[in-house]
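Standup notes
- DV: blocked on the single-chain target, sequence here:
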Amino acid sequence: MTVPGIVVEIRDATNGRAIADLAKVIVQDGAFTDSLRPAESSSPQLADLFSRHAAFERAGTYSVHVERTGYSSWDTVGIEVAKGVCHVSTQRLQAANASA
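- DV (later): unblocked, structure below
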């Protein structure tokens, strides 16, 4: 089992509705760049709506950029993912995107 370094839950800032389904998310640590993927779940449709995962088993300091058509972009920097004994320590973020 691999563990994501970053999990981003993406919601509409106004009503809290999950909007990860069409969101594009990029994480970056220096020259390393990764696009977030849908969460794994027993119900892939639900996982796809709520969150995205990236930086599997990779420690580092990340910037995160979220964009979705019809919404303003959401950015954050300095997200520290530490290496644990067996896996990385996952950082869980909540992105609340406002309608554009």
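- Follow-up: DSSP finds one helix and eight strands in the chain.
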